[in-house]
Design a protein that fits this description.
Blueprint (H helix, E strand, L loop, with lengths): L2 E3 H7 L1 E8 L12 E2 L3 E11 L2 E15 L6 E16 H5 L8 E3 L5 E3 L1 H11 L35 H11 L1
Parallel strand pairs: 6-7
Antiparallel strand pairs: 1-8, 2-4, 3-5, 4-5, 5-6
Bound molecules: zinc ion (2 copies).
Amino acid sequence: MLEIDLKQLKRDKTIVREVGVEPEEFDVSQFGFCLSSPISVNLKAHHANNEELTVKGSLETLVEQECRRCLKPVETKMMTKLDLHFTSKQALQTSEKIEEELQFDWSQGELDLMGYLFQEIVLNAPTFVECDQSCRGICAGCGVNLNKLKCDCPEGATDPRWNVLLKNSNK
Ligand SMILES: [Zn+2]
Ligand SMILES: [Zn+2]
């Protein structure tokens, strides 16, 4: 869990936090990767004026996902900046501002940041990885890992991209 104590923030104006959040706290399984280290979060919450506050800092973790060619697990270091601006629910009720603003509520006593961290992780995780630029992948014909073994399939025979090339060269 990672929360900002709003009473303390109102009193001190600034809160600095350095925490490690366990990867189990974020259920990212549906996004095709997992987190293989604690998420280290550095942040500075600042109570800018009466009804606004900012949370700035950074988030760092290791993302593990499969090489898109050969399916070997690959770890990538992910680092992203945090820069969030919140307006109090109380101020939004009496203003013309649209509802899409990030909100916090003084009466709740704390601001829970876990949902925002989750979003940052999902948005910044690589969409795909390759274990190596020269990864040969898996043979589409017989399924062997071509980084480790050779097979007797005609090269590219079952790769649809190869068919397109052949067609073009026959013109
Ligand atoms: Zn690979
Ligand atoms: Zn093969």
